[in-house]
């Protein structure tokens, strides 16, 4: 069973609806801005870019979830440090990248990131659609495919990724987990090495500094460092489906 506080939904379809950001009292907004400014002074790499938050998640039928989403910026999540304020849950995509022999790739965040040393699946925050575009299942799969390419150097078309699970964990954060086609260990390691080297050539620190291939929750537990809260339930589910 998933750890306490982690919900894992088996899902085949998402129904997506945009919602407005809830009104924020001026005091909470001012405190949020002060918290954000302190965070930026401590870590100048923080960027207040556009991002999508989760406005609500509910079942709409067997293996169907209705998800409302809200346009915010990263500054919004500073509300988590404002006493009495309510921050919307974050929304992110990630990918189960299996090997041909049935293992799952876990990736470790580099020291320069907001979660140094944390093991997780490759992925990232959901970005809002550009003007005139829509945020639908195809667009979300495309964002998951882009994360695979940027973080691991793996080229996968959005059509090759299948929505496999939805998780809800810390702070109510919702993760949309996609399943990618299996690849050999040699291919995964070569692609990761190449994309990391390319980032360093450009003078950038790679977002990920290591990968591991695990077959079971026990092997996952042996990885030193913090783990994303959804990681063990996802690895357990994949191991049970083999």
From TrEMBL:
PROSITE patterns: NUDIX. This is NUDIX domain-containing protein. Residues 78-237 form the Nudix hydrolase domain. It comes from Streptomyces corynorhini. It holds the Pfam family NUDIX.
């Amino acid at each position: 069973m998933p750890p306490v506080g982690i919900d894992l939904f088996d899902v085949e379809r998402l129904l997506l609806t945009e919602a407005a950001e809830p009104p924020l009292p001026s005091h909470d907004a001012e405190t949020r801005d002060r918290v954000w400014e302190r965070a930026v002074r401590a870590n100048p790499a923080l960027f207040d870019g556009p991002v999508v938050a989760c406005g609500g998640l509910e079942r709409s039928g067997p293996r169907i979830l209705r998800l409302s989403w809200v346009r915010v910026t990263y500054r919004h999540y500073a509300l988590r440090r404002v006493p009495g304020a309510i921050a919307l849950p974050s929304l992110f995509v990630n990918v189960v990248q299996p090997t041909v022999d049935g293992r799952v790739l876990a990736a470790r965040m580099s020291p320069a990131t907001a979660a140094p040393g944390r093991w997780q699946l490759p992925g990232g925050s959901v970005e809002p659609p550009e003007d005139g575009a829509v945020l639908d299942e195809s667009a979300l799969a495309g964002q998951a495919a882009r994360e695979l390419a940027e973080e691991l150097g793996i080229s996968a078309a959005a059509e090759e990724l299948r929505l496999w699970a939805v998780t809800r964990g810390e702070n109510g954060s919702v993760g949309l987990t996609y399943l990618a086609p299996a690849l050999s260990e040699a291919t995964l390691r070569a692609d990761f090495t190449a994309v990391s080297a390319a980032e360093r050539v450009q003078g950038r620190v790679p977002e990920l500094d290591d990968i591991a291939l695990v077959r079971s929750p026990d092997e996952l537990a042996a990885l030193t460092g913090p783990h994303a809260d959804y990681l063990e339930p996802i690895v357990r589910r994949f191991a049970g489906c083999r």
